[in-house]
Amino acid sequence: MNLFTYKWLPLCICLFLLVTACAPADPAPTDSEQQNTADNNDVSDLNWRVPDFEFTDQAGKTFGLKDLKGKVWLADFIFTRCPNVCPPMTANMAKVQDELKKAEVQVELVSFSVDPDYDKPDVLKAYAEKHQADFSNWHLLTGYSLDEITKMTKDTFKAQIAHQKGTSPDVPLLVTHPTQFYLIDGTGKVVRFYNGLQPDATQIAKDIKAMGK
């Protein structure tokens, strides 16, 4: 193995861990989905930057990157018809939201739907309410095409979104999408990511506080 291979091997492993699929054959999260990637989650040197966007949140209001300027935010990718990983991810985001508020850590939460044709604002709102979301600093976004969110996910977060038909009326859609929570600074640069199925709110709070130093 040459020097070039050694140099890029950790990044390749990191990117492999970023993508998991919502698969009905295994309704519980898989071992790979649960694997903690905290030891490899610092991507601040890779210059992953969120492009300018202006979408629609669960209240039907316009929300975009300009609303996040100067703020630290935590992002994830979900869809309301997800048969397995999205419900625990959303419940975990709600728990993280609660823990960060208790720790008096200022952060915005943004969830991008990967099923925008179905996930209209009222659908996202009802879904989030089931998971005790506090909308004061949590925006669930839609109002874009599947191509737009697929491109953003690939270009910025180095992960894939892929749709395929479900296997039953109860599971009409399967989507491959990232299951990470991404920490983004006030300039729109992704600095860290966390396992959305096993997030450590204490570590996230510590990382956010360190960004303010």
UniProtKB/TrEMBL annotation:
PROSITE patterns recorded: PROKAR_LIPOPROTEIN, THIOREDOXIN_2
Key words of the record: Copper, Signal
Domain Thioredoxin positions: 44-213
Pfam short name (any one): SCO1-SenC
Gene3D superfamilies given in the database record: Glutaredoxin (3.40.30.10)
Signal peptide coordinates: 1-25
PANTHER family in the record: ELECTRON TRANSPORT PROTIN SCO1/SENC FAMILY MEMBER, LINALOOL DEHYDRATASE_ISOMERASE DOMAIN-CONTAINING PROTEIN
Family to which this protein belongs: Belongs to the SCO1/2 family.
Protein name according to UniProt: SCO family protein
